[in-house]
Amino acid sequence: MRRGPMWTPDGASPPDADAERGGALAKAYARWRLPLLRGLARFKGSISSAEDALHDGVVKWAAANPALRSTDEHGAYLRKTVLNGVADEFRERQAGRQVQAMTLEDAGAEGWATAAE
Fold it and tell me: Which terms does the record give in the GO molecular function aspect (predicted)?
């Protein structure tokens, strides 16, 4: 018999509601991990970047521990959490590139405050 983290030695799952929710999270993760990784790998360009993005999203998703009824609902929540994280990362990177691309003289001409002021 295969045992996961939510199984007791006699094969019965624990009656605790949090444990049941944890089991639902584990099932949803097992179901949606590969489809999410494939999409993220295409978008981010590498498997390692995709795994990092998925890991960050899973940590946030598990911390939220949403009380949803089905694996599909958990999958949708996980997908949205991961994609929001990727979008946030993209926006932060774009903002950083804009700041880094501006010279000090251009920043002064645009009216941006500098550290010397």
Answer: DNA-binding transcription factor activity
Which pLDDT tens digit goes with each residue over 24-46? 888 888 999 999 999 999 988 99
CB of 80 closer than 8 Å to CB of 70: no
Total-model pTM: 0.59
Q: Report which residue type is found at 75.
A: G
Residue-by-residue DSSP string for 13-27: PP--HHHHHHHHHHH
Q: Quote the DSSP letter at residue 69.
A: S
Please give the helix or strand (H or E) that residue 98 lies within, else none: helix 71-101
Which structure tokens are listed for 63?
């911390």
Report how far Cα 36 is from the mean position of its chain's Cα atoms: 10
- Contact in structure between 58 and 74 (CB atoms under 8 Å): no
Q: Residues 14, 15, 20, 23: what is their CA dihedral angle, to the nearest 10 degrees?
A: 20
d(C-alpha 104, C-alpha 114), whole Å: 8
